Amino acid sequence: MFFHQKVFAILASILIMGLVVELVRRRKLREEYSWLWLLTGVVIILLVVWYDLLVFITHLIGAIAPTTTLFIFGLIFLMLISLHYSIQITKLSQQVKEMAQQLTLLKDQVENRVDS
Amino acid sequence: MAESLRGEKKEKILILIPAFNEAKQIAGVVHQVKREIPEAQVLVVNDGSVDQTEKKALEAGAKVLSHPFNMGYGVTLQTGYKYAIKNEFDYVLQMDGDGQHDPSYLLALLREVRNGQVDVAIGSRFLGEGEYQVPLLRRAGMRLFGFIASRLSGQKITDPTSGYQALSQRAIQFFIRDIFPGDYPDADVLIMLHRAGFKFREVPVSMHPNLEGRSMHSGFRPFYYTYKMLLSIMLNLIRKG
Predict the structure, then answer these.
(1) Which pTM does this prediction carry?
(2) What is the ipTM of this complex?
(3) Shortest CA gap B179–chain A (Å)
(4) What single-letter DSSP state applies at residue B8?
(5) How far apart are CA B183 and CA B29, in angstroms?
(6) pLDDT for position B82
(7) Which ranges constitute the DSSP H helices of chain B?
(8) Chain B residue with minimal CA distance to A104?
(9) Angle, in degrees to the nearest 10, between helices A66-115 and A31-49
(10) What is the percent of chain A where pLDDT is above 70?
(11) Which of A93, A94, A100 sits opposite B68 (nearest CB)?
(12) Is B120 helix (H, G, I), strand (E, B) or coil?
């Protein structure tokens, strides 16, 4: 890995981590969602600094260039995040459905009470 | 269950009509079912219609519950089931609000669940009553899922998509759980019922083609529908209890 590749990777990671921390600080992002993003940043920095580890993993998964390893794990990570969101959306839809049904039934109950 | 002084049970029957933008048809349907079973309460669950469905149904003398926004056919049915349980109805008769289902079969469906042999009676348009034309591809899909459902439930199912049904309180109790699908309940629900130990039976009914020419199965829907049904049926088999 070239020196400027390393610098770029580390800078990008720090930028993302800074952004995540700032979003949590401004309460735009809940703490429970932030740890995954921070972890990613830490892992990228770790792999860049500890280059032998990256080379080791590269051999382990049968990739040729260490950068490929970074890309692959980046992609896997993004897929997992999307899956996580799908699960959340499913859960939220279920809750919204439940609330709307309850609202519908309660509205009826309240209106009938007012009428009678 | 309401009981009179003499101790005999007075049955409470709910006619449940899910409706989404059915302003043209709904009043007629409500009038017809009221004539058919005068002692039943007629409930229209309005699934966030943007037309006059709510007003027309109220004018026709139905009780109306309105969703705050559109949530789908299955959710609409389930809101009705929840209402039925909350208000202790013994039976639910459900039919679509678009005038496709002929109300003169309501009593035949009710009879099936009333005599206690089955928990769900399903009106099938393919058992000889009336003539109902279905486009070839859709017919093939119905045949396929009817066949799978028949095999898995050990009884012949000819019309798994039929929303013309009578349900016992026991079945309604089962359907208010989260497992009930939000979009279109179908063969998967029948298999689920069977596996949970419920009994159901098809009853011959006649249906009219949709007057507006609207269908829930158009465009890319059939592909999604086939995928969803196969997945849903398979998962039903894998799940325990």
Answers:
(1) 0.82
(2) 0.82
(3) 11
(4) P
(5) 23
(6) 97
(7) 23-36, 53-59, 73-86, 106-114, 136-153, 169-175, 187-195, 221-238
(8) B67
(9) 180
(10) 97
(11) A100
(12) strand
